[in-house]
Amino acid sequence: MSQTVETVPPAKLESHPPGLYALFTTEMWERFSFYGMRALLVLYLTKAMGYSRGDALNVYAIYTGLVYLTPLIGGRLADLYLGQRKAVFIGGTLMALGQFALTQRELLPLGLGLMIVGNGFFKPNISVMVGSLYPKGDHRLDGAYTLFYMGINLGALLAPLVSGPLGERVGWPYGFASAGVGMILGLLTFVFTQRLLQSAGLPPGRDAEAEPKLRPADWVEIGVISGVVALGVFGLIRAWPSLQPYWSPAWASTSALSFLYRGTILLGGLLLFILATEPRAKAEMNELHEPFTRADWQRLGVIVTISLFSVVFWMGFEQSGGTLNLFADEKTDRSIFGWTVPTSVFQSANPIFIVTLAPLFAILWTALARRSFPLPSVAKQGLGLVLLSSAFAVMYFADKQSKQGLISPFWLLSVYLIFTVAELFVSPIGLSLVNRLAHPRIASLMMAFWFLCTAAANYLAGIMEHTLEPYHLNLWAFLGAMAFVPGVMMLALTPVLVKMSHGRV
After folding, report:
1. Does residue 279 carry a pLDDT above 60?
2. Phi, psi dihedral angles at 233 (to 5 degrees)
3. CB burial class (10 A; 0-12, 13-18, 19+) of residue 62?
4. Is the predicted pLDDT of residue 389 greater than 70, yes or no?
5. How far apart are CA 326 and CA 316, in angstroms?
6. Gap between the terminal Cα atoms of the chain
7. Who contacts 279 (Cβ-Cβ below 8 Å, separation ≥6)?
8. 250 pLDDT exceeds 70?
9. Considering only CA atoms, which of 83, 68, 182, 180 is closest in space to residue 126?
10. DSSP string for residues in 222-265
11. Distance, CA of 266 to CA of 273 (rounded, Å)
12. Alpha-carbon span 160 to 167, nearest angstrom
């Protein structure tokens, strides 16, 4: 059965529903929490925990990879049973607990574990709710996700300026605790702005007009699930030394081979879980009960294609928290009028540029759509990759210059500026595109798949330097080539992917 596509009159293109700003603020505080910890993690491991550079980057790689892997589970559970709102509350609660656990060095594994699982519930579902506020075919969606992305980066801007200096200069626990406070503020924002979300994110089958908010029983369920999951993570970590010999000695290693080994087993289990479950809610939308059409399958193919290409983008971009963070610490002149700028403060450069440029890009995309001259979303992805390659060209020359001594911070700042423009072509547009193309039955799952590819990219970003060393390949030149070639390929594939999207790009 064909799907009816609603359109929005041009006069309403500039306005957005109030729910967007509720989600914007919630995501801002959650990203404050996440990026506060991210700015500190590698520095904390090397300076406070005694990790070598390679081991710290491996921990960073595995953590950031798993953070974007668990949304595959959280997204599916939200699609089938919980709804996005309950999943967001569960995820936020677990992440707050994780941040406070990190204030105790002996609880490092527990804190990271809670953050990983909590993000799985939170990340895909709040992104899906943004799209739920708009009818199908709404040309405001690219602009909406760009504004939402500005909320992400407001949090990412504040985090290195607050959590970073607190951790580096006052004490590591204070940095992590401030990130936990940010997550609590995000949860409180979400509680008090529910009424603005209309029907977005309610459990499957819930009558949104009769019950626009969660029921008391829902809050009990949120508390119970959060508690059970937290205890499960704690129990697994405590039992791991006993279980490890019966599982595989590969778990004791952080090599790429061992990661692929355990990752294959995990993904296999997730695949069986996905294939074995079907939506059980008696939803009001007939669209949820309709079989997938040929157009639906082709749109799914577009999602898979852009998600796989995004791996290359994030593999380069996520050098920010690892190798670029260490470059700022070891090879950059951070002295200003006799004061040494904390290394973590450099992590605020990208979000500063995002907050500055995102509104301009939102206006640009909306203006192009109004004039019936939109740049296809898949073409934006390709252009973003090409731009990213130019940033690594700058890093290549910056690295050569650093052989003569500490270099000017403007080298890194120029790299982060190019990163930002490239990111605005790829990330918010990718979120918007996945939301527009996904069948409602698997909306959260497809958003989780986008983040699953980000998981692979984050892991690759962390191990890339160590992997290239035996081959004597320059990291920056390699990453530049890895961005440029796929970017050109994506631009060449644009006409095919636009056709497969059936009017939704």
Report:
1. no
2. -65, -45
3. buried
4. yes
5. 15
6. 21
7. 79, 80, 204, 288, 441
8. no
9. 83
10. HHHHHHHHHHHHHHHHHHHHHHHHHH-GGGG---HHHHHHHHHH
11. 11
12. 10
